[in-house]
Write a structure and sequence with these properties.
By secondary structure, the protein is an alpha/beta fold. The protein is built from 25 helices and 23 strands. About 35% of the residues lie in helices and about 15% in strands. The chain is elongated, with a radius of gyration of 30 Å.
């Protein structure tokens, strides 16, 4: 670890009345711009009487949470200026987009990245018109918003993103607003525990601010309707020191309201400075810092603060009615138009903006300058800080292969030795995330160079379990937190890997949706620099979860990801240890993708030597000429295709049976690593042209395809190429239980014997002529099942199968476990 930067130690002081008045003016300006964005498309400073045609025909946006967000932003700016903080602002109530757009505009950042939206009257008109408008920007805190790393399209992940962003950024702070509606979600409730994983010396600070404005879209919120002492106990139970503030519910002088909150914020920041100072002192003395009770703020204010008190005789401020657009008929009725006019003028824009339409200099001076502006923090555009990983040459870690299938290795264990050295060479910028499964997925070699970061209580034996205050492995039994931490880490310019059981990665389906959308949009934003790809390693997969049973058997995450934009998604199914190394090297070098890599952890044959593995992965798919029986210059009679490590074994076994039983049959074997290669080249950047596809799979030759996941996905990917519906796919069809590995395959008709039967059924002239062979295959299935049900293990001809012609058993690569059955982790 390099030298840890010091926490800023500028002496704090209470703000003067004039400073508080400037903060109040800045807040009024931010609120005025927020309301203007929701409602106006002309007359941005109300220098003409407000007319209906000045109001947008479609009113979209969220007002209710916005004034609280802008209030907090204004006070964070004061703290940054006074204390020299490096800060970012993360908004869980992401639909408060107008407030954050307004803040970045007032700080000048917005005009820097979007010069057409200048600091003048015309720029204000553009700012207002573009919001929630065709061809404009979204209503939430989106990638288009400078300073954002947290999109507001989904609730629940503000804290996990913030903690991920603060890892390895010891001199920075994330002011993180948690909406009280968001606080009702499971992921957010769990993410309060992230404070047990942050090292107070080597990581940055998250200051959670629970924004209690009382209402969701149509109902009160739970945490706003419990007694304060109960809420305080809840936050203390999570390991925080809660500080409380209430404002906006009476006619208190605004300066006094700002003064009271400044005192609360200063108390929180003073506590943080004390914690950081103690942590630095302990580190210098080589002592472990006891986990601190980090401060958090409970900020209670009315929903729709400073908006209309009532509309049409119904309570609006402090009610769910202010959640979105309080004056929905402002363009349609004179009464609502007059209400909007009074609301906008209540902020006194003539006092806030000069004749040209720019924020008055004395108000603008309340914000920080340069990169200390939260909207201009380089970490919020993490690609500008990103540096390539230092990757050891994966060729040095490959398994020696004298003949295809002649060596046995556990793919993820082999990968773990490489990841160990990746970690060692990137101790400030690379982390591995996973829900308690790093060792279970056999990546434990990384513990030779790092520990699992942990800052809850320690017991005497924990060191042997690789628990330590600092470490590059982050494990918490919550896929949501691992995903959120990793996203925050990547979005701020670093690198990481998410290792998970295949069946349970579905827990983050909606989170990865949002991240993929973020990548898609940032590809279109010139000023957003590319970030490292989000790479999943899915192991303990469907075909080797026979011991855990049906609950652990689901390969559908691939289907979910293929729904995303082609320019963002990549799916890889390396068939052995060497192709896994090559694939992962590629993924960790890549940017702006979501990479899904599926690989088993049990001992499996290694089919390709080092150079052949690299070539095969570079192509993405290819003919294994040594595995087939086709004759040069002649079309094959059938193509046996496969994607996935276990389907590859079954395909190879079927090819061997056909070689022995039907020596004159011309069989081509095709293995697919990059699943996107099956698409048409007009559908995906990795897709094949029709000519290239036909060159591999033939034009009208039957194809029997053994696939790792649900079979219909292959049909979907290849539908443009499969003009004669000749591709027959075998895969998982939701037949699972606790059984033997081969019985799992038979239950889903993806076993070697069924593949041979498929060839007999689909190659012209074989059906009747090879009826006896087909019956032999059916009988083999019966024998295999009976053996499994009698002995509890697979029949020896399957369990001991090898590709070669006999003789010596396959060589085990170093570190391969003696047993071949599944574990129960």
């Amino acid at each position: 670890m390099s030298t840890v930067p010091s926490w800023p130690d500028a002496a704090p002081k209470a703000p003067s009345d004039s400073e508080l008045e400037s903060i109040h003016a800045w807040w009024r300006a931010a609120n005025y711009l927020s309301v203007g964005q929701i409602y106006l498309m002309a007359n941005p400073l109300l220098r003409d009487p407000l007319q209906r045609e000045h109001v947008k025909p479609r009113l979209l946006g969220h007002w209710g949470t916005t004034p609280g967000l802008t209030f907090l932003y204004a006070h964070a700016n004061r703290a940054i200026r006074q204390r020299g903080l490096k800060a970012m602002y993360i908004t869980g109530p992401g639909h408060g987009g107008p407030g954050l757009v307004a803040a970045s505009y007032l700080e000048g950042t917005y005009s820097e990245v979007y010069p057409a939206v200048g600091q003048d009257v015309d720029g204000l008109r553009r700012l207002f018109t573009q919001f929630s408008f065709p061809g404009g920007i979204p209503s939430h805190v989106a990638p288009e918003t400078p300073g954002s790393i947290h999109e507001g399209g989904e609730l629940g992940y503000a804290l996990s993103h913030a903690y991920g962003a603060m890892m390895d950024r010891p001199d920075e702070i994330a002011f993180t607003v948690v909406g009280d509606g968001e606080a009702e979600t499971g992921p957010l409730a769990t993410s309060w525990h992230s404070n047990k994983f942050i090292n107070p010396h080597t990581d940055g600070v998250v200051l959670p601010i629970l924004h209690l404005n009382g209402y969701k879209i149509a109902n009160p919120t739970v945490l706003a309707r419990i007694p304060e002492d109960e809420l305080a106990d809840l936050m203390r139970g999570y390991g925080h020191t809660p500080l409380f503030f209430t404002g906006g519910f009476d006619d208190e002088d605004p300066v006094q309201t700002h003064r009271r909150f400044a005192e609360v914020l200063d108390e929180a920041l003073d506590q943080i400075a004390t914690i950081k100072k103690q942590a630095a002192k302990d580190a210098k003395a080589d002592r472990t810092t006891e986990r601190p009770a980090w401060p958090m703020i409970v900020f209670r204010s009315p929903k729709g603060w400073t908006g209309p008190k009532e509309i049409d005789g119904q309570k609006t401020e402090g009610s769910w009615r202010s959640h979105q657009v309080p004056l929905a008929s402002a363009r349609d009725t004179d009464e609502h138009l007059a209400d909007l006019d009074r609301w906008l003028r209540s902020y006194e824009p003539e006092e806030l903006f000069d004749e040209d339409g720019a924020l008055r200099a004395e108000i603008a001076a309340t914000a920080p300058e340069g990169e200390l502006r939260m909207s201009a923090n380089p970490a919020t555009n993490g690609g500008v800080l990103r540096k390539d990983l230092r990757l050891p040459d994966f060729r040095d870690y490959t398994v020696d292969v004298q003949a295809p299938g002649g060596t046995i290795a556990e793919p993820t264990r082999v990968l773990g030795t490489w990841l160990r050295d990746v970690t060692a060479q990137n101790m400030d910028t690379f982390r591995i995330f996973g829900p308690d499964e790093t060792a279970s997925n056999r990546l434990q070699a990384v513990y030779d160079v790092t520990d699992k970061q942990w800052n809850a209580q320690f017991e005497d034996h924990d060191h042997a379990e690789h628990l330590a205050p600092t470490g590059r492995v982050m494990e918490m039994l919550s896929e949501h937190q691992c995903q959120g931490w990793l996203e925050g880490y990547l979005l701020t310019g670093r690198h990481g890997l998410f290792s998970s059981y295949e069946a349970f990665i579905h827990i983050v389906d909606s989170m990865v949706n949002q991240h993929a959308k973020w990548l898609k949009i940032t590809n279109e934003i010139e000023w957003r620099a590319p970030i490292s790809s989000l790479t999943y390693l899915l192991s303990s997969h469907v075909w080797r979860q026979d011991h855990n049973g049906f609950s652990h058997q689901d390969p559908g995450f691939i289907d979910h990801m293929v729904n995303k934009k082609a320019e963002v998604v990549r799916v890889y199914l390396p068939p052995d240890a060497n192709t896994l190394l090559s694939t992962m090297d590629h993924c960790l070098r890549s940017k702006q993708y979501v990479n899904v890599v599926v690989a088993g952890k049990q001992p499996n044959p290694v089919w390709l030597n080092r150079e052949d593995a690299i070539t095969h992965c570079t192509r993405g798919l290819g003919i294994w000429e040594w595995a087939g029986t086709e004759v040069a210059g002649q079309e094959p009679d059938v193509v046996l295709a496969c994607a996935g490590d276990i389907p590859t074994i079954e395909t190879m076994a079927a090819a061997k049976i056909l070689r022995e039983k039907l020596p004159d049959l011309k069989v081509r074997v095709v293995n697919v690593v990059d699943l996107m290669r099956l698409q048409d080249d007009t559908e995906h950047p990795h897709g094949l042209s029709q000519r290239a596809f036909d060159g591999i799979f033939g034009e009208d030759i039957p194809v029997v395809f053994a696939y790792h996941g649900y079979p219909w996905l292959i049909h979907r990917l290849a539908y443009r190429h499969d003009r004669h519906s000749r591709i027959h796919v075998r895969g998982y069809k939701e037949e699972g239980t606790t059984t033997t590995p081969f019985d799992m395959l038979m239950r889903n008709d993806t076993d070697r014997y069924h593949l041979v039967m498929d060839v007999i059924d689909r190659v012209e002239g074989l059906g009747t002529a090879q009826a006896m062979l087909r019956q032999e295959m059916e009988d083999a299935r019966v024998r295999a099942r009976a053996y499994a049900y009698t002995h509890g293990t697979d029949i020896p001809e399957v369990a001991d199968w090898q590709w070669g012609d006999g003789g010596d058993a396959p060589t085990a690569a170093p570190g391969v476990a003696a047993e071949t059955g599944g574990d129960n982790e």
